[in-house]
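Appendix B. Raw example, untouched.
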Amino acid sequence: MSPIPDDPARYNSFLTDLLGVMAYGELSAFERLSSDARYSPTLHDRAVLGRIAVVEFQHYELVRARLEAMGLDTEAAMLPFQPSVDHFHERTRPADWYESLMKAYVIDTVSADFYRAVARHVDAATGELIEQIQSAEEATAVLQERLKAALADDPRLASRLALWARRLLGEALTQAQRVSLEHAFLGGLSGLDDAGARELVRALTAELATNHSRRMAALGLAG
């Protein structure tokens, strides 16, 4: 973990932004998964997405509790990020169950990678919170299993889902870059100047893309 900068007020300002975007991301994931469950071909599949949605809401509650413990209003912390996150989900509406599964998988794994990378630059308590939220491997494993089963049942899905996953990755990376640079929390938490922050974001983007390609290869898809 990086030490807290000499200016605690400045650090806490960037930390508020980080927790704000995390909170709204988790709340949006809950809403998205709950809504996408309607595409489910079976009641079992609907229950799978519903269970994952509940986990996302539990994560939101953890971040909310941390913000409130800091004496901060959760809604106020989330509001700056609502337009960009909502716009992201509008641009990436799934067309069917299979695209819903892939979106849940890609966003879940890329987000986890992003926040784990951020955790290198925060205080120990925040790092533990991030790890607690991003350590739920069960949901990721379930999504991966369902995608593998779908691809095995219908190999024709491979090209469509590979293309959809690439689009999702591109949108997710653009979103991560925009949020990181516009709100400057990654550089602020790291104590870097603008040039250093941009270099850090570029390196992080490359890391996220590499990890995504590895996961797509595990599914038998081109990254």
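End of appendix B.
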